[in-house]
Amino acid sequence: MATQFARLLKRLRNDFQLSIISLMGLFGIIGISPYAAYRLLTGNYLVGIADTIIVCSTLIAVLYAWITRDTVKPGIYLAAVFSLGATLIAINLGINGLFWIYPLILFNFFMVTPGKALLATLLVLGGLVSHALLVPGSVFESHYQMVSFLVTGMMASMLSFIFAFRTRTQRDRLQLMAIQDPLTGARNRRAMNDELKIAMSSHRRHQHSFGLLVMDLDHFKQINDRFGHQVGDQVLVAFVELIQRSSRKEDRLFRFGGEEFLLLLPNTEASGLHSAAQHLLRRVAEELESPAGSVTVSIGGALLRSDEHWENWLQRADASLYRAKSEGRNRAIIDSTTQAIPTEA
Question: What is the pLDDT of residues 61-78, one digit of tens each?
Answer without folding.
Answer: 999 988 888 888 999 998
